[in-house]
Prior knowledge:
six-stranded mixed beta sheet, 7 helices, globular
Amino acid sequence: MEIERIVVGxxxxxxxxxxxxxxxxxxxxxxxxxxxxxxxxxxxxxxxAILVTHGHFDHVGAVQPLQRHYDIPFWAHRDxxxxxxxxxxxxxxxxxxxxxxxxxxxxxxxxxxxxxxLGTTSWRVWHTPGxxxxxxxxxxxxxxxxxxxxxxxxxxxxxxxxGDVGRLQASLRRLLSLPPETRVLPGHGPETTLGFExxxxxxxxxxxxxxx
Length: 212
């Protein structure tokens, strides 16, 4: 398995290309479709699906052009339907001053606990709300894509539409059930490990995985 990170858009979102065998996923293509396309072509990787950890514009802004170029499906958690519908190009431009393509309806709604396969690797969908109602983590072999749930030394905001502090903390507790050596690939900022965040991230202090 190989993972490439591309930082895109004005909010410096991490778009990830995950490759195994002859296929790859595009995770969180928030902007700069041309940049993502160029990197895929340089690597010679063939995407088979677009997955998003949640529906905020900075994670979905380039879904439409990439989907049209490759004729591949777009997957998101079903509880993110309202968030995706709310992120219209007009509203994003008015509120954030950012231009995005219209966001298409997902071709498949992901479910908590659902098993996914990419090449020879197995993945699990975890519904981890708090930053938004339909936020997910993608848990793979030794790695977790956390979206805007957990960052290096920080966590996702809850003061925006659909945010909920209590649900975010519950999602973080669930994340703590993973091994401490798990690589954490967040939606913004540098890669980290779960063990490092447990020791150094003040937002995790006092949380534990008991009862998860």
